[in-house]
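help with this record:
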Amino acid sequence: MSDPPGAATTITRGAPALLAAFAIPVLAVALVAAGWSRGTGTEDPIGPGGVAAVTLVGAALLAWRAVTQRAVLGPEDLWCRNLTVGFAVEWDRVEALRVVHRAPLVFVEVRVADLRRTHRLGAATRFAADRHGVAEMLATLRTHPRAAAVLEEEAP
């Protein structure tokens, strides 16, 4: 990212990311336990210990990504690291930041010129019941001049 230090606004992960960071390893352990109890066949190329190790390492990486999600709104570009993907886009290519209310979540979609699908700002995702967190995140978007210019809010 080409923004000078201090000139950018950062949105850090919310409670949904913390919940995901907790749930991912728990689900991985449950999957490993279920697979281990099923046993192994003689035709399996990888034993249950190998599958367990890969599953748990993958879960740890996803949990780490969930905790370290962030979006950086700089003067020239928008940078985002989500659970599984990261992206950077210049503000000139951002057509809209759309605030979407889908119970139980509120999230922000990024519509980029010349892309068919939208991206999400994972760090901006909040639980709808957390009105203070949602208001704080929206205030951050409204105070950034480039973000405010393309911000579209739907009624909850």
Summary: Residues 15-38 form the longest helix (24 residues).
